[in-house]
Design brief:
Number of helices: 25
Strand content: 15-25%
Structural class: alpha+beta
Low-confidence stretches: 1-11, 13-20, 88-92, 97-102, 447-492, 499-518, 521-562
Largest sheet: 17 strands, mixed
């Protein structure tokens, strides 16, 4: 009686509310259905249960708010899925009758429509996921609308069918009547036509994901400098995992220690961490890049076997299969760790050997303390020949330095984290279908984590409605009733994406964020007004919010908030506007069209910069507008912005930090170093050599003052390998992929600045654009400036590391414009000291390969041993002072070095017309696109 009264009251209330509250009416209906399902008579009468659920169009997935509101559900017939034996047993329904009439190839499935996907289940009471279409950006031609679903005309008038398009697939479905076809087509297309709320329409930068944080939705970000800070945070997050962990990378080493010294932190080894969580029931899904073994020695097959041996809850996929896909040149280059859909780590750091480092960037480790075995890594000297014994040294620690590794990583919370998880799900499902489309032994699993309902539900009245729903019978709303998987754990699942929607349209995004370069944005969407002032964050329940707060608090030790004036390797956790951008295409993620939103973001942010751009990247290969070879236009955007500043007579600075040499094996003049020389060719072609280079074009227009607008730098360090041994030096390999604009915006991710990473159709990449919402007082060009807490603190800490500044000196670099001369002076001084001490390579005094060979020969005669880039100093150094030769200890010279910053050698090999591979070298026969 109580339930009937409740139903009557709900129906009466629903007649009075407006159409804008239909979503909340649906929640009330779901609550009633949940209460009905909990009754004892309902649970004991299976036939009644089936009929009621079918009548109400509800399933176990209906009551899982983590996937968004309930839309449409029901039985349909599909042909693309294998028909099981039990499908031949008729249950007496009309669809079963039609199934028998239509042939043996059609299978009855329960179809579930959600805002972000279309799921195919075995039946409405089962949880077995048979297939899923994850909605993605549709390809629009002109003003023509492209629909997710279309009705189909059948020759037989008794057959009623429609087609669903998505993920580069077309799926044909049948149902019992034409009216039901119309219902399904209308419902599915209604999801796709919601523009700003739909995953089928592009957002700013043509990205699949909208800007998060336009309202207070819990979007947070935090940066990490170098491997130590990032790895420790990742280890803490893995230890706190409750439901699932997603991981993907270009290279992943199961034996990697995430905390050091490794002897004191044996439990922090990645495989041990994952084993502990898998035994607790955490589902772990790992995507590995399947390399071309002749070209790379990362041995992903070894990693896969090690990971699969950990536990049955660890699922691993390697992709792509080169022969079947025809993909040989491109790679999966993203580096992601996603824990419980609550926190995601994104940036330049793979969980592999050689990446762990501190801001000190030590060149030695003897006895082994921080870098065990093959983790003592220097790819300039040699690549490991085998990964079977990871604790066995590959390099002689008494002769060769490790190559220090500089990187930047980031953590995000809230909706942007779920956007990253959605991207992972797309890649996982695409790899699953490609690797094992029909293997029945590989079950399909469902993500098993609760999430918040769509984050922007409106005003206070809506909050009250939703709270009433959860107050009806909170004891019955438990995780055991949610949509969870009971399929065997020993397989590769398809993963459902979690919903993260917001009300902002592309027009609102562009206006709020201040970036309006229409060339790099998607077509503006009209007809959708959004009241951002009244939008409020609404959570599913207080318990959900409290759970999220507790989870964040648990990681406070790793994520403690720092002052922007502190020199640290861990940044403040700040409220930000975040947008996920990526490079994907059909081969890499199964998308219907290529997405190059990282490229568009780079170009737009550069063109809209007011005063200052700071870039760190592993590569810098780009083209001007007239370049017919290099297609990305980051260089063109930089050139246009600098020319505009000159024409407006305004001060504008661009600082770019890149590796001194490519991080591949072989001396610059060695026979086996064609890859090194090829990369140097394309990089110098971008920077300073030929009409396609930015410096040459700027100098032709502006003269010598061009160098006041843009400058290039690298990083280098030194130390002793053993006590009493000679001083050695190595470049600090710049592997970070970060851009900071005006101390208010940062772009951090996995993407290099080259065509491979930016075009979208080649390597797969992912990044996050972070725009500050919290500001601190600073200066820009001598004038007061409100700098963003995230971007400003990141730049200060990066510069303090590179320049060797103490905490007391950080205030000197608050203004990135007036500090330009000091930056250049330190770089020039450090460069001269290294050149006088080591004559290390590369340097501006060597212009040809013959000069390089001569220099190498001279130093090898002087020294009993040196490195591939002349990185060993003599015991006594002969220098000229006041016209006389003075003998001194090299350390007396090196103690004047500040930080790690050095000038990039623009004149190195400048008299060599072409450094590309010659016809006698194997690399000559590879596609030139491999190198740029």
């Amino acid at each position: 009686m109580m339930r009937m009264t409740l139903m009557t009251e709900l129906c009466q209330y629903m007649k009075e509310v407006s159409k804008t509250e239909m979503f909340h009416q649906e929640l009330l209906c779901q609550s009633f259905a949940r209460l009905l399902a909990s009754s004892r008579p309902y649970q004991t009468k299976q036939n009644l249960q089936c009929k009621v659920c079918k009548f109400l169009e509800v399933s176990r997935l209906s009551f899982s708010p983590e996937y968004g509101p309930k839309l449409k559900e029901g039985y349909v017939l599909v042909k693309h899925l294998p028909r099981l034996a039990e499908d031949y047993t008729c249950s007496g329904c009309c669809l079963c009758h039609f199934c028998s009439c239509w042939g043996k190839n059609w299978r009855k499935v329960w179809l579930v429509l959600k805002p972000g996907f279309l799921a195919f289940l075995d039946n409405h009471l089962d949880n077995k996921l048979l297939d899923i279409v994850v909605f993605d950006v549709l390809l629009f031609e002109g003003n023509d609308e492209v629909y997710l679903a279309q009705d189909l005309k059948e020759r037989n008038p008794l057959r009623h069918a429609f087609k669903v398009s998505g993920e580069n697939r077309n799926i044909k479905l049948r149902t019992t009547t034409h009216a039901k076809v119309i219902e399904w087509v209308s419902a599915i297309n209604a999801v796709g036509l919601k523009h700003s709320e739909s995953w089928c329409h592009p957002h700013r930068f043509n990205s699949f994901a909208p800007t998060r944080g336009l309202v207070e939705d819990g979007s947070l970000a935090q940066w990490f400098i170098d491997g130590k800070a990032a790895f420790e945070a990742i280890a803490s997050s893995i230890e706190g995992a409750k439901s699932e962990i997603y991981m993907t990378g270009w290279w992943l080493c199961p034996e990697l220690y995430l905390r050091r010294p490794f002897d004191n932190h044996s439990s922090s080894r990645l495989d041990i961490l994952l084993e502990a969580k898998a035994k607790e029931g955490v589902q772990i899904h790992i995507l590995l890049y399947k390399e071309v073994s002749l070209a790379l020695k990362i041995n992903s097959l070894y990693s896969k076997r090690k990971l699969l041996n950990i536990h049955e809850n660890v699922k691993v996929l390697r992709y792509p299969d080169h022969l079947s896909t025809g993909i040989y040149l491109w790679s999966h280059h993203e580096k992601l760790v996603i824990v419980d859909h609550k926190i995601s780590f994104i940036g330049g750091l793979d969980l592999c050997f050689g990446r762990y480092d501190t801001t000190e960037h030590r060149v030695s480790d003897l006895p082994s303390f921080l870098w065990p075995g093959k983790d003592y890594y220097n790819p300039r000297e040699s690549e490991p020949n085998s990964w079977e014994d990871t604790l066995k040294d590959e390099l002689d620690r008494e002769k060769y330095p490790r190559m220090p590794w500089h990187d930047v990583h980031c953590a995000v919370w809230g909706p942007p984290c779920r956007d990253i998880a959605r991207h992972f799900v797309q890649r996982w499902n695409h790899a699953k279908r490609s690797k094992a489309p029909n293997e029945q032994k590989i079950p399909l699993l469902m993500p098993q984590h609760h999430m918040v309902l769509p984050h922007y539900l409106g005003r206070s009245k809506d909050i009250d409605i939703e709270r009433k729903i959860w107050e009806l019978n909170p004891a019955e709303i438990s995780r055991k009733d949610s949509f969870s998987s009971q399929t065997p754990p020993d397989g590769i699942p398809l993963l459902l994406p979690h919903e993260a929607t917001d009300p902002d349209s592309s027009t609102v995004e562009n206006k709020v964020n201040g970036f309006s370069s229409s060339k790099y944005y998607s077509t503006q969407l009209s007809g959708h007004n959004t009241d951002l002032q009244s939008a409020k964050l609404v959570a599913v329940s207080e318990s959900d919010l409290q759970a999220g707060d507790n989870w964040l608090a648990k990681h406070e030790q790793t994520c403690n908030i720092q002052s922007t004036d502190e020199v640290t390797d861990v940044g403040p956790r700040t409220l930000c506007q975040c947008q996920i951008v990526r490079s994907v295409s059909q081969w890499s993620a199964g998308t219907s069209q290529t997405e190059d939103s990282i490229h568009r973001a780079y170009c737009a942010l550069i063109e809209e910069a007011e005063y200052f751009i700071y870039i760190e990247n592993q590569f810098f290969i780009s083209g001007l507008s007239e370049d017919e070879v290099i297609q990305n236009r980051v260089l063109e955007s930089l050139y246009n912005r600098i020319m505009r500043a000159h024409e407006e007579k305004k001060c504008f600075r661009v600082i770019i930090v890149i590796p001194l040499l490519p991080g591949f094996q072989g001396g610059v003049d060695d026979g086996g170093a064609a890859t090194v020389r090829a990369l140097m060719h394309w990089q110098y072609r971008t920077i300073c050599r030929g009409e396609s280079s930015i410096l040459q074009k700027l100098c032709s227009k502006l003269g010598p003052i061009a160098h006041e607008f843009i400058s290039f730098f690298g990083l280098r360090t030194y130390g002793r390998l053993i006590d009493g041994g000679p001083m050695v030096t190595s470049q600090v390999y710049v592997h970070s992929k970060v851009m900071i604009v005006d101390d208010r915006c940062a772009l951090i991710g996995s993407s290099n600045i080259n065509d491979r990473s930016l075009l979208g159709s080649r390597d797969s990449e992912i990044a996050v654009v972070i725009e500050d919402k919290e500001f601190v007082d600073s200066f820009m060009g001598g004038n007061p400036w409100n700098a963003g807490n995230f971007s400003f603190s990141l730049r200060l800490s990066l510069w303090a590391e590179h320049l060797g500044l103490s905490a007391e000196e950080v205030h000197l670099i608050k203004d990135p414009i007036t500090y330009n001369d000091f930056w250049s002076d330190i770089a020039k001084s450090n460069t001269n000291i290294y050149q006088e001490t080591f004559s290390c390579i590369p340097n501006d005094t060597i212009h040809t390969r013959s000069a390089l060979r001569q220099s190498m020969s001279q130093w090898k005669q002087k020294l009993p041993h040196t490195t591939i880039d002349l990185g060993v100093a003599p015991e006594k150094l002969e220098v000229y002072e006041n016209g006389e030769v003075v003998v001194m200890d090299p350390m007396a010279k090196l103690k004047s070095v500040r930080g790690h910053l050095v000038s990039f050698p623009l004149e190195f090999m400048s008299h060599e017309d072409d450094l590309r591979p010659m016809f006698i070298e194997g690399e000559f026969y590879a596609s030139p696109q491999v190198f740029h």
